[in-house]
Specification:
CATH architecture of the largest domain: 2-Layer Sandwich
Oligomer: single chain
Strand order of the largest sheet: 15-12-14-25-28-29
Helix content: 40-55%
Number of strands: 29
CATH class of the largest domain: Alpha Beta
Structural class: alpha+beta
Largest sheet: 6 strands, mixed
Shape: elongated
CATH topology of the largest domain: Ribosomal Protein S5, domain 2
Distance between the termini: 57 Å
Strand content: 15-25%
Number of helices: 20
Number of domains: 4
Length: 732
Amino acid sequence: MTEGSKKGKGSKNKDPIFASSSFNIARVRGITIGAHWSWLIVAVLVSWTLASFFFPTEYPGLGDRTYLVMGIVSALLLFASILLHELGHAFRALKEGMKVGDITLWLFGGVARFEGMFPSPGAEFRIAIAGPVVSLALAIGFTAAGVFAGGAGAPLPVVAIADYLGTINFLVLAFNLVPALPLDGGRVLRSWLWHRQQNFTAATLSAAKAGKAFAYVLVGMGILGFFSQAFAGSIWFVLLGFFILQAAEAEGQYALLTATFRNLKVRDLMTPDPVTVAPQDPVSRLLDSMVGPRGHSTYPVAGEDGGLAGLISVRMAADVAADRRDVTPVRNVMIPAEEVPTLDENTSMIEGLDALRAAPRRAVVVSSDGSIAGIVSVSDVAKAVELEQVKGAGQETTGRSAGWLVWVVVTLLMALAASAFYYPPLAVTKPGPAIDVADGISIEGVPTSEINGEYLLLSVEVSQTNALGTLWAAAHPDQRVTPVSALVPEGISDEDFMEAQLQMFDESQMLAAAAAAESAGLEVDMSGEGARVVATVPDSPAEGELEEGDLITAVNGTQVDLSADLRDIVSARPEGTAFEITLERDGQSQTVEVTSAQLDAVEELSAGIGVLVATENLDIDLPFEIDFEAMDVGGPSAGLAYALAIVDILDERDLAGGETVGATGSISVDGTVRPVGGIHPKSQGAREAGARILLMHTDDIDKLRHADELTVRGVDDLDEAVAALNQITDGD
């Protein structure tokens, strides 16, 4: 979410909080379609977000230009979907006999403006539900198009755009059905309350209260997001919450005004026979003779025939320079007649309110013969409202009870919506794919044998899901809910974190090949130029001592050639150990002291001192050629599985013995196995993949919750792992 896919609904009457068109785009069945300037900003932001983040993450490997085109096309089709949603409302309103003013695209999506009251509760329901029906049709259509395009071999960008639009239209549908005025669901709620209570005002006030409650929920979600560093999404929640809050308040106020003025005409509130000025009068005469204790702030300008020529305010006159007021006629500064709102004195005051919502907040009342009969302003409306409230009239804001059950349902639906859209700062870990690495290894240059069995790379799937998904995971025995900061160091960018993980995985493959070759008695030459710091973990021992780009070449006098060397040296000593680290920074050699600590983030990635590192210029000279199938997996924990598979390929013996073997643990070039994280979901993944044997570091066995149906062995190095596997498969 991207943030422009959520949309507020407009009032049936024009209101200052709703956008008015800055420019017009088209006209359909007499309905003007326009856009507010804020829509341009959102259109650019949506296009940029999709092109820079969403599509590259979900569909990697496409070029920047392709992503840009995908982002622009998707954004345009998204807003076309929103426009169709609004047209669904508008066309249904026309069928119900209502007038539709215009449709405006703006910051929060789209606003369709209706004129006059809804004819009945049923009419409002049909108009309100028409938009979501369109969104549902679009969601199904785009989803089906994506499936068909994928099956027909269409280009990936086409499939990606269709899938995105299918998903986003489902989200638009779900959000708009929340029973909170002014959203579509809130209008459905009001129509039901109106039908049950037989009181439009009472129904509106109740639905508006629901809207305010949901607005506070959205603002609260945004504030929580600030604490979890989800700034972009949090800002949208806060802005959207304030918009819904204002819109719900406006709906309630309009309902009260409707109740107050339902029996009043414009003539009942206007100031009759107002003082007028002539177009040719100098501005000075207006200021000198008409402004005083009994003066007004605004005056109609009457033409020679007594008809309306314009409108002028004291402020407009005062803006004329003092030395020019005697020679500047009123016609030069007045609002011309064609721009002045006019009303008939017999018009219902409810309809007359629309003319007072925009500047100049006044309307001239014109008789049937074209003469000026009076003037009515917002202040007249305010006085009337105050008087009616004192008299107790127009306050029929109660009706039949809606019943407690409807509010229970409304509360549950709001809670469900909030849970679906809020992503807490928690990560869900569960068993990831268990992949047979043997199928992805190709060795040439030495004698090899076929593997009789499988060696499973055991992975952990980590995701941040919405509150509903998080609650489901917490109740699921094979899933675990963990603070995101315990898995991914706070302050480390996603790009740096993923780069470090992928580099570690690639390095673990080569380390496994080297360790397997040495185990088979083959000579291996491996070299690197040190451990390059990719990033430092905030609030870790390394912060302030090590910097991104530093090249670590030694620890406590022991040479560091590989990133694995650094992790091996640090992990071999208890936390609280002080390490003297030699490094190169900006071409200069220097030494710093860093003390290891227990880190919240994954230790296998941060080396116990709080750095993400990668080997500089890794070079491994193996006695054979080896290729690995590309894997979308990160981290070093696949090292043991790869090493066992390569040993089996190089050894004439049937090491696996037809078994499916799960293995997890990082490995060093000398065959040393190191403990890793995620043991429980990995063991679950092994069971689900049909493994009978599970090998891991000795220290990791204590982390197992249960190991039903698995023969588990703890090992400290590759030779122990091979011996343990031989023992199990030989049946000893």
